[in-house]
Amino acid sequence: NAKMKPVQVDEIGELYVSGLNLAEGYVNGRDPDRFIDNPLAVNPIFARLYKTGDYATVHKDCVYYQGRTDSQIKIRGHRVDLSEVEANLLGLPGVDKGIVLCYHAGEIDQALLGFITVETDAHYQTGMQVESALGDKLAHYMIPQVIILDAIPLLVNGKIDRQTLLKMYESTNNNDDSQIEIEYDYTGVPVGRMATAKDLFETVGQVIGRSARAKISLASNFYELGGNSLNSIITVTQLCGKGYPISITTFIGAKNLGEVLDKICTDEHALDKFREQQFGAGAIRNKEEVASFDYTMNLTAYPLALEHKRTPFRSSRRASSRKRTWSSG
């Protein structure tokens, strides 16, 4: 268990292995915390333990796998079990094999990812089509960014090679050659607010980048597009930097971008009130000064949780296509 005490029969605990065949560690010293001293060892043969990262139970001298220890993550305050998401993904007609992983859990670029292969007669052509099908089964914050592969890479022991998949995502995420503009739909935007809407939509697109799940429009919900509590702060900061002051509370409380557009401070009375709240009376007197102010240096207006204070901000994310195919070869 969490206190490194053996669990009872049929009680779920974390699985460790030990013995003569246990290696000293990984090549190049990777993940040294997975190899630890055994606090219960009497025989020196079992002096070291390997932390498998699996949950298991023991019943009638048999070990039963009960899932991964890293299978639960937090998304916008909701606890999400990756195994539940994976079960729903694999349950879709036409999906052959797959796995759900979290990239950089808890960091600003956290991404929930679903890697799948599809059957030859499947009607899915893009990951977005699969995500749309999941919308009938899962809450929107549980829907992963789905990536269709030619084949799932495996380790020599037959298990899925999680690290290779994450590196594939990271490589493509940083590949300028794959850069394609996100689509924007300005239907319903009043002519007089078109310039503001373009700044708003493009700012959201730059911050969310590759995670954007659909066209960005007035009806788009920031979180359903792929936003999260961390990059919402960046979005608000960038909007303020462009001369569109809006509080983080107002932004995250908006049902869609149309509501954000309506609530962006544009009249002088609202602007004066916002400036006074953020910088003191008379500190900034006009919109041009608001636009020129370095908001990245004034993030005290949006206090961060302790675990987020160490997270470096990234000013933008690349926009790119959601349709891509990787080969494991």
Describe the structure.
The chain has 329 residues and is α+β, with helices and mostly antiparallel strands. Helices cover 28% and strands 17% of the residues. The model is unreliable at 294-325 (pLDDT under 50). The protein has three domains: 11-68, no CATH class; 72-173, GMP Synthetase, Chain A, domain 3; 191-278, Non-ribosomal Peptide Synthetase Peptidyl Carrier Protein, Chain A, CATH 1.10.1200. The two termini are 39 Å apart. The protein is built from ten helices and nine strands. The protein is elongated. The strands form three sheets. Strands 1, 2, 3 and 4 form a four-stranded antiparallel beta sheet that branches. The protein has a three-stranded mixed beta sheet with strand order 7-8-9. A two-stranded antiparallel sheet has the order 5-6. A hairpin with a 7-residue loop joins strand 7 (95-103) and strand 8 (111-118).
How many DSSP E strands? 9
Which oligomeric form is depicted? single chain
How many domains? 3
Question: Order of SSEs, N→C?
Answer: EEEEEEHEEHEHHHHHHHH
Q: What would you report as the Rg, rounded to the nearest angstrom?
A: 24 Å
- Mean pLDDT metric: 79
| Terminal-residue CA separation | 39 Å
Instruction: Supply the number of helical segments.
Output: 10
CATH topology term of the largest domain:
GMP Synthetase, Chain A, domain 3
Q: What about the largest sheet?
A: 4 strands, antiparallel
Which second-level CATH architecture of the largest domain applies? 2-Layer Sandwich
CATH homologous superfamily label of the largest domain:
ANL, C-terminal domain
Low-confidence segments, ≥5 residues, pLDDT <50? 294-325
Shape: elongated
Percent of sequence in beta strands: 15-25%
Helix content, binned percent: 25-40%
**CATH domain class of the largest domain:** Alpha Beta
Structural class: alpha+beta
Domain Carrier: 200-262
InterPro entries: ACP-like_sf, AMP-bd_C_sf, ANL_N_sf, PP-bd_ACP
Protein name: Putative ebony
Keywords: Phosphopantetheine, Phosphoprotein
